[in-house]
């Protein structure tokens, strides 16, 4: 049994994981990162459009601040998020952007003077301030009041990942590549590391650490078509679930992105619509203003995806061998803009569709894209049930997204959450010791070894690839954009049948090293459990909130469902998770539940909403007119981040009542 000891262990080498590792290493802690692939190939590189941060540099972002970013995030979540987390995030986002600048991210910059942009299908000229020249630019994204999505053309994730990985390399942080974690090591109260398998040699290793951070991304690949990389299979969530102790949060909250290309499902960034692109139907008609006359194509993602699906259901989709689709039209942006600011989109269209998006419309339809659910954590990123287990990024339910994530907030969460949680992870490592029990470690290694032995030497006959394909079909057919009771019950029943069959998996290839069939067999059992947490959570939640849209329960029901779903797995023989719920306290909210601004306002109000609104009015009146926005915010809902991140953010020509203008650094 090979043991590898470290202070801070991070599973996953995307932006979130690397940022936590950097925070640990900067404290002088021994740090190791595990990754299925080379770090620079992590799924973070696929993020195109940008990251949100309220810099307020551009004329269209003038007046932006943490308050507005916070409000957009809470409304985008359909009041499902932890508002204190949303505050922590909005406060630290500008700091993360400027830190990334120092690490070498080549942000697209503001050019002073007039420039032409497309707004609501019309070309208009805006005038950028001379003092803003050279500062970080921002584009429009759905569900936001201001232009705040900072970007590097449409390769923002690529730029960020290379800069952050290079920073990790400069600090000498080792990334153990082609290594897959298969089990958490724990005693029911304390996480002590992971059992991992080398994908090349088949060797089992035990990584022992004071803190273990899961940063493995989302679980999109439990669906048949997803914009996620093929490594985003939910194994990180499954590791926590299989402890029987750690709980997952809001697993039914799954986002579908409106504009993935047909048929392969590769994403075309929201930046296409943010920059002025339009959605058209089979007749060439721009249909979004018919449904959302105010925000149109730039309504929140869950809303746009549903409107597109509704429109195709009316027979307005374009027929194709792969089913109906709609058109994304960015031709009005002009060739120069497409080849400068949307160059990845152009390359994707050329390589996978054989079209030129500067003159051809792009076939698109909503496709699974993001997982709001994940390993439940507290504000420090630590799992409440298993001490020493942390999670960050898409793998976690921290929970700043609630039931719907705004575009640009995911890339931001990786580096902002990684920056904040990384400091808490380092604090934990410095303040806690670990008593190593080699007997406990050996028992977990032997359990994984036994699982592999059974697959290779056993008499099972079930094909792991067949089971996985069937799981993907079930999730796509019954747990998609629109959901209903009978179909969700069918999904649960059929997934349980697959999980039973997974107990009889067999392999044709008997190699213990470099064996893709063995890898698939080890993963599919875990993926089925994750899929069941999604389906069971969706079946139990009899309301519609954010991306969770029940056709049989179309109202958002704050009275009965203003809570967070928690899921745990009772034991290895169980066929379904145990669900419980964590109430959201309206009386602690800075922004009580209200109308999102889309469609009809049919929400069932929480009984405390009026009471909290009255209390807020009283608190603000007692402060008087002399209080600035920071004092008002603190009085309503105090929040804390690590002391080094508490300083106020500076902005260009920022002037509000009782605040002096301040300059900006970067």
From TrEMBL:
Keyword match Flavoprotein? yes
Q: What is its EC number?
A: 1.3.5.1
Location of the protein in the cell: Cell inner membrane
Q: Report membrane topology.
A: Peripheral membrane protein
Listed A to Z, the keywords are: Cell inner membrane, Cell membrane, Electron transport, FAD, Flavoprotein, Membrane, Oxidoreductase, Transport
Give the matching PROSITE patterns.
FRD_SDH_FAD_BINDING
State where it is primarily located: membrane
| Fumarate reductase/succinate dehydrogenase flavoprotein-like C-terminal domain sequence ranges | 468-598
Q: What single Pfam family name could you report for this chain, choosing any that match?
A: FAD_binding_2
Q: Which GO terms describe its molecular function?
A: electron transfer activity; flavin adenine dinucleotide binding; succinate dehydrogenase (quinone) activity
Q: Which family does it belong to?
A: Belongs to the FAD-dependent oxidoreductase 2 family. FRD/SDH subfamily.
Name of protein: Fumarate reductase flavoprotein subunit
